[in-house]
Amino acid sequence: IIEKTLKEKADQLSISAKSTLLANRGLCLEQVGRLDEAVASLEESVQVSKGRNDAAKDVLRQLKASQLMARAVEKAAKNEFSNALSMFQEAGKLDPEGDGVWRFNVAVMLNKLGRTKESLAELLHFKQKLESSQQQDDEDEDKVT
User: Fold this and answer.
1) DSSP 3-state assignment of 145?
2) pLDDT tens per residue, range 40-88
């Protein structure tokens, strides 16, 4: 339906509607594992909206971070720890407010590279992020009950 609407009615859609449809197409493509196409659709959504579609920008940023994380895991599996480290760090820059798993992976890569002190520092940051998230979850749960 989204594809058909974008093809047949593209010239009749408002900028906002077209941007929303492109973002939704990107989300659908992500759900079926077509990540490169999802990124392209989300990038088009942001471009069409001239950067005003904040939701699409957020999802695009998170998706790019996820792609980097997946590629970093592949590098780590090949014992390419330095490359993996760089990719995990870049993923963290893209999604610094995310779940922080990238930080744990950075710590693991630093440890693999023999950079123990740096690894421990990253693990402490990761632990703080987890504790902060848990505390926020507990507070949110208390508000509900």
Assistant:
1) coil
2) 999 999 999 998 888 889 989 988 998 899 999 999 999 999 999 999 9
Mapped onto helix, strand or coil, the DSSP state of residue 39 is helix
> Given pLDDT bands bounded at 50, 70 and 90, which one contains residue 6?
confident
Cα–Cα distances (Å) from 17 to 13, 20, 130, in that order, read: 6, 5, 38
DSSP code of residue 98: S
Contacts of 104 (CB under 8 A, 6+ apart): 122, 123, 126
pTM above 0.90, yes or no: no
Neighbours of 136 (CB within 10 A): 10
Sequence-ordered list of residues with C-beta below 8 angstroms from that of 48, at least 6 positions apart, any chain: 15, 18, 19, 22
In residues, how long is the chain? 145
- How far apart, in Å, are the Cα atoms of 144 and each of 76, 134, 136, 137, 139? 41, 15, 13, 11, 9
pLDDT at 145: 65
pLDDT score recorded for residue 3: 84
